[in-house]
Structures are given as C-alpha cells and as structure tokens.
Design a protein that fits this description.
Blueprint (H helix, E strand, L loop, with lengths): L12 H10 L3 E6 L2 E6 L2 E5 L9 H11 L3 H6 L1
Antiparallel strand pairs: 1-2, 2-3
Length: 76
C-alpha cells in the first residue's frame, strides 16, 4: 500500500545550500549559467539565487538528482 506524501514546502536558496551541505555537498561554485555543488565527484546543478524560493517540484528533482531520500530531507 502506498501512502500519500505531502508536497515539499518551498525553500530559499540560502536554506537549500545549507541543507545540501549537511548532506555532504561542497559549494556552491559558479559554472556556466547555474551554480553547482559537488559530493564524491557528483556535480549537482542548483538554481541561481533569485527573489523567489525554490518550489516543491523543482526541489524534488534536485533531491532525486542528488540521491537524497525525500524522507531523509524532511526529517533533517
């Protein structure tokens, strides 16, 4: 049986970077059009800081690319 998951809350760029650092990522570093963070040779592209927060759907894509479990992110 699958349980319904609640949507991820939007997060500011600053908080996103801080949380990714807690999961072992270094950076952010400039690179082309977007910033990126690195962990064990994996390069994770993150959105540039803007006035708006990073929305739930984009955050979910970032977590999937980073290999971070949604539940681990919520519990952190």
């Amino acid at each position: 049986m699958q349980t319904k998951q609640t949507a991820l809350a939007p997060i500011t760029h600053k908080k996103l970077v801080g949380r990714l650092r807690k999961f072992g990522f270094d950076g952010p570093y400039p690179g082309g059009k977007h910033l990126f963070m690195i962990k064990d040779g994996m390069r994770l592209t993150i959105p540039n800081p803007h006035r708006k927060a990073v929305g739930g759907p984009l955050l979910l894509k970032i977590l999937k690319q980073a290999g971070i479990d949604r539940n681990a992110w919520v519990q952190e």
